[in-house]
Write a structure and sequence with these properties.
By secondary structure, this protein is mainly alpha-helical. It has 7 helices and 2 strands, in the order H-H-H-H-E-E-H-H-H. It has a two-stranded antiparallel ribbon with strand order 1-2. It starts with a helix and ends with a helix.
């Protein structure tokens, strides 16, 4: 968990696109922890609870991180708008045919720099961030996708525990009402309250 969170920005201000990379990395690590073969194959409940706690902590941190990044993008765009400034933005072609042309330097022949109005930059930055938050069913790694996988796993674990024992493993409640599923749903509330 330390490796997943160590790169999440703790600055007083998140910046786009610099802060997106560490959030994306933490999201990948969260998915790895969620699907840990050792934890998922473990029969001891304590190991599964520890894995669940790690994943829930990371999901909450990621929800807050993406929210904060969006709010700081919004504030930056408002500041530029008030000052009448434009935002410079760099683009590059990621196609396989042009991959060998990228140099990574400031004189890269595949680099295109454009100036955007503050509102255009905000919309573009929001779309880039939301690509990692909202699950649209395209198979890409997203925060909502990891929440979906977490909820499915937890319901599966609870259903298996209920089949083994005559009393449910979560205090007599069904797996929908399990606290671990409810905590994952709290991150959905954070997502719903993110700026649009």
């Amino acid at each position: 968990m330390y490796l997943a969170t160590s790169n999440i920005p703790v600055d007083s201000k998140y910046t786009f696109p610099r802060s997106l990379g560490p959030l994306r990395h933490a999201l990948q690590k969260t998915e790895e922890i969620l699907h840990c073969a050792k934890c998922n194959g473990e029969s001891r409940v304590a190991i599964k609870r520890q894995n669940t706690s790690f994943v829930l902590t990371l999901l909450g941190s990621l929800g807050c991180g993406f929210d904060r990044l969006l709010r700081d993008i919004d504030a930056e765009a408002q500041s530029c708008l008030q000052k009448g400034e434009k935002k410079a933005f760099e683009l590059g072609d990621r196609s396989a045919e042009s991959a060998h042309l990228h140099t990574g330097s400031s004189d890269c022949p595949m680099r295109v720099e454009i100036e955007l109005e503050a509102s255009e930059w905000r919309d573009l930055a929001f779309r880039a961030v939301k690509t990692h938050v909202n699950d649209i069913g395209d198979g890409k790694l997203t925060l909502e996708g990891v929440i979906n996988a977490m909820e499915l796993r937890q319901r599966t674990w609870h259903a298996a525990a209920e089949n083994i024992s005559s009393s449910t493993a979560n205090g007599g409640r069904d797996s929908q009402a399990a606290s671990c599923v409810q905590l994952a749903q709290n991150v959905r509330v954070t997502i719903a309250e993110m700026p649009t």
